[in-house]
Amino acid sequence: MHAELTPREIVAELDKYIIGQDEAKRTVAIALRNRWRRQNAPAEMQDEIMPSNIIMIGPTGVGKTEIARRLARLADAPFIKVEATKFTEVGYVGRDVDSMIRDLTDIGVNMVREEHQAGVQERARELAEERILDALLPDSTPQKKAPQLVPGPGFVMSSPDDDEAGEDGAADTADSQARRERTRAKFRDMLRNGSLDDREIEVDVATDQSPMLQVFGPMGLEEMGMNIQDLFGNLGPKRSKKRRVKVQEALEILTKEEAHKLIDMDKVTQEALDRVQQSGIVFIDEIDKVAARTASNRSGPDVSREGVQRDLLPIVEGSNVTTKYGMVRTDHILFVASGAFHVSKPSDLIPEMQGRFPIRVELRSLNEEDFYKILTQPKNALLKQYQALLQAESVKISFTDEAVREIARTAAQVNSEVENIGARRLQTIMTTLLEDILFEADGSGPKKLKVDADMVGEKLHSIIENRDLSQYIL
Hints:
This protein folds into 3 domains: 204 residues, Rossmann fold; 121 residues, no CATH class; 97 residues, Helicase, Ruva Protein, domain 3. It contains 19 helices and 11 strands. The strands form 4 sheets. A 5-stranded parallel β-sheet has the order 2-5-8-1-9, sandwiched between helices. Strand 6 and strand 7 form a beta hairpin. Helix 6 packs across helix 9 and helix 15 crosses helix 16. It is flat, with a radius of gyration of 32 Å.
């Protein structure tokens, strides 16, 4: 868990992946730290302290989504990104807003389940090994012969020969058992050192035979569909099917199956619900698309826009949402919304919605210097990504500083002349620049390549000069 990070440490972590946008980083760092502060506040005050939801305003490609995604990883919290345009007002075709909380709960349960499975992984692997050894060495212990019955008047007698045979049989059985244990131990060592990985075995794997159901109808029936699915899934015995797979694959399959058996799903569900309610994060992208721009737009084809906001309002304010794992309270879920707001303004949102997003932070457009830093500084910088891709072909590619500067200058120029798509422009330019190299790199060509400013200019100059062509290619 990283929730105990201070705001300064949170910003430092965000700086490793996101260039600039210091104000936005500070704002989300405070919001994240406040969640930890609330959970450590006096018990009688915890329910009174509401999260400070945030609206991030800025053009596309400046880091809004990346900030939210990295924030969730730092918090080790259930996180979901949704598009506001996918939801519609109740009565219209589309998803209802409650589904975002149901999806968030699914993510939370999967997250906690994986953590619990990691805790029992060692024991699960041991059990999986035993099942594989059972398949490799079927039980062949001879059945002990039943004692001979000697008929007599009212009593049963066993002969001395039978007693001696029984003792000899017991001795043989013990000796056979010892040999089997030695063989089993030898096979276990071979299994662990990988000697048996390519051998095929037949294993029984649990399978889900429940019928797939889909409910069509008005909003609100999604949950009914899930409940019917669960109902039918729990009817009848669990079924299994035989699969013939290699030992290495069988070990992975059976380890997951055994780990699932070892964990307490009731405990997992309860912990997941608590984590979703206390630290869940919902990132609502393109919220500006459901803001009615003028009074005239509140009818006609955009009639459902304001309705989406009104349906979203109780979720953000705090309400109970029914999920297949139980009720989820949304009072303390952190909502982060974002939008370019090129046409509409935050003030075009309904007043109640504005009030539920009290913190607003504006992200600035990126300039040439920002692009240069994005290409070189982050841990997942674009140049490092392409170097890793070509490394798979045993090709070592390097970029001169002048080449990187030229790429950054080109991105800034195209953004200013065509359409400003922020840092995403770097991806289109890099793809165009390295197209021939990526096509020809197959391990048989040169092992070292250097990209300089001349190559960048030669590849991109003609495209940039032709405005019509640059609109399609860059």
